[in-house]
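CHAIN AND CONFORMATION:
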Amino acid sequence: MSTAEMCLFNVKDGFLEGVVRGYKLGLLTAADYNNLSQCENLEDIKLYLTGTDYAQYVSNEAGPLHTTTLVECCTRKLVDDWEYLRQNASEPLGTFLDYCTFGHMIDNIVLIVTGTLHERDVQASGGELLDKCNPLGVFDAIATLAVAQNMRDLYRLVLVDTPLAPYFSGALDEGVGYLAGSCGVHARRLTQKVSSKTLMAPSALDASIPTGYV
């Protein structure tokens, strides 16, 4: 980091650094987990969590409690914290945070694509498929998946209007099977890029991806 960048760091990123430090202080410690392991039931766990940063997410949950309820509450806190960071992030941090969610978005698309291929109603069983979607990968257009009647409708209604569109352009040129294949290929590519800290625009993807997948 250059001297000029260091001088401007607090102006650009100081606020979010403070927020992240606050998040770190709110993480459960080894002592917390030790105390949680001694709880005899879910009500005890809920009571303990009300003394942590999870309080506002679990305190209003009425009994009888289920493990899935507590998991959803804790996950909701994670998602809310992440979205707060994203909404207040400047570039290039904002783009990096977007990249981190693309993998989850693709997983959700693959889930819905698989359900569509097997002729499952997206909203069947109380929205079972949508409930299984990763919250970090949920986007506004995902609600329109329920009206998709086939793979081409799915592409037009959702993919072209999301941040994932550049990764799927042309995916239907040679058949709907390529759409699911493209999801898997790009999920692996994004995972590799994030883990190696190398972020590339869709146009910069190497030629190893077969024609029709990009």
Remarks:
- DSSP finds ten helices and no strands in the chain.
- The first helix runs from residue 3 to 25.
- The mean pLDDT is 76.
- Residues 93-204 form one domain.
